[in-house]
Design a protein that fits this description.
Layout: E1 4-6, H1 8-38, H2 46-70, E2 72-74, E3 88-93, E4 96-103, E5 114-116, E6 125-127
Parallel strand pairs: 1-2, 4-5
Antiparallel strand pairs: 3-4, 3-6
Length: 129
């Protein structure tokens, strides 16, 4: 089994997303589908096609999240001078220095300063914690 390395925070975020998709979004999409079906001829019903596509994407994301959560291994922060998952690093660029947390690809979010351990980095990395 392939492990998905996540922080505890990242795993909780994925569990919340899964819960929302299963318990809120599924109902919303089902209502859209029901409404589109009630409008008649499905062959030329753009609302039905859109709702079916949305349902397909939703169910694919639910399967993906279940798989990630089922394969998750929590990585705890360890003191080290090597970059690893949970490390906070500083990256130097022409614009200055920015701090990022190294995470698994499933929880990478550049807007939250979280980058994947699979991201290509130059030799401008300093381990902070």
């Amino acid at each position: 089994m392939i492990k998905k390395y996540l922080t505890r925070e990242g795993l909780e975020k994925l569990k919340k997303e899964l819960d929302y998709l299963k318990n809120v979004r599924r109902k919303e999409v089902a209502l859209k589908l029901k409404d589109a079906i009630s409008q008649g001829d499905l062959r030329e019903n753009a609302g039905y096609d859109t709702a079916k596509d949305e349902q397909g994407f939703l169910e694919a994301r639910i399967r993906e999240l279940k798989g990630i959560i089922g394969q998750a291994e929590i990585i705890e922060k360890k003191e080290s001078d090597k970059v690893q998952i949970c490390s906070v690093v500083s990256l130097s660029s022409a614009n200055g220095e920015d701090k990022f947390q190294i995470v698994g690809p499933e929880e990478a979010d550049i807007m939250a300063n979280k980058i994947s351990f699979q991201s290509p980095l130059e030799n401008h990395v300093n381990v902070l914690a």
